[in-house]
Amino acid sequence: MRALLVDRSAPGGLRLGDAPEPEPAPHQALVRVTATSLNYGEVKFGPENAPEGTVLGWDAAGVVERAAADGSGPAAGTPVVTLAPDGAWAELRAVDTDLIGAVPAGADLGAISTVPVAGASALRALHRAGPLLGRRVLITGATGGVGRYAVQLAHLGGAYVVATTGDPQRHGDGLRALGADEVVADPGDFAGHLDGVVDMVGGPQLVSAYERLAAGGTLVSVGHATAEGEHFPFGAFFGNEGRHDRSIVTFYLLECTGVGPDLSWLAGAVATGRLDAQISWRGSWKDVADATGALLERRLHGKAVLDIA
Predict the structure, then answer these.
(1) Which CATH class, in words, describes the domain spanning 2-114+277-307?
(2) 291/295 Cα distance (integer angstroms)
(3) How far is CA 275 from CA 111, 114, 163, 265, 278, in A?
(4) What is the DSSP annotation of 234-257?
(5) Superfamily for domain range 122-253
(6) Could you report the per-residue pLDDT of 218-242, keeping only the tens digit for each?
(7) pTM of the shown model
């Protein structure tokens, strides 16, 4: 089968070549991939660290070629969206059936391919942050793939949504169109207290956002775009003066249960237009170097989608 292979001599560390077809385990379905979306972390660190010839990729949408031998999961011919730590950048991938979501017939599988990491991470983070209706929720790094889904989902959940971006003047209108009520450059620029935070940035912004949490508030750490450590000042974890019971939590998507139903719900929401996939680059996987270059140079705000020809 054709696949994008790790080749550190190629632009972006990837080249189109041939790889063995995967052999599914009994609890896995074999999926013929139609489209895959790229995530900054896998593009940045995957080719640097994986062995030559590896097939990487987390997100893929396509059609079930062969159902799982144990009878679990969707039948052959079903359009699906899939999540796994590798294997998405190929014509065929074997996927655990509990990491597969059903896709409405006729949906754009390119748009649906943006759901697994970005959409499911945003959804799980907001679940961890707690009830949303009538609460004040901050989304940091809101112009990224996860951030854009998080803004939309928080808005759908009834939250007052505050979004941060390095350039509010440039990105403010777009984020407000997705559901943000306020757009600021730093969490400290928000005048009130927050009930929840979904943080994609880390570093000083995480510290600043935590300082804005009201009693009982939760900060969910999802991304680490700054690649900086977090240095909290003395007193940051005192519980008095309105700081009672605040928390910082993390999660790992592949260790969450019930991911398959999440993927199905998100796919349906994208297919019906309730959620906008926010695709900012789309093209053939033959042009992967263009897509990865734009991602690594931070020229993309949203998702990059490769159509598998």
Answers:
(1) alpha beta
(2) 6
(3) 10, 11, 17, 11, 9
(4) TTTT---TT-TT-EEE---GGG-S
(5) NAD(P)-binding Rossmann-like Domain (3.40.50.720)
(6) 999 999 988 899 999 999 999 998 8
(7) 0.95
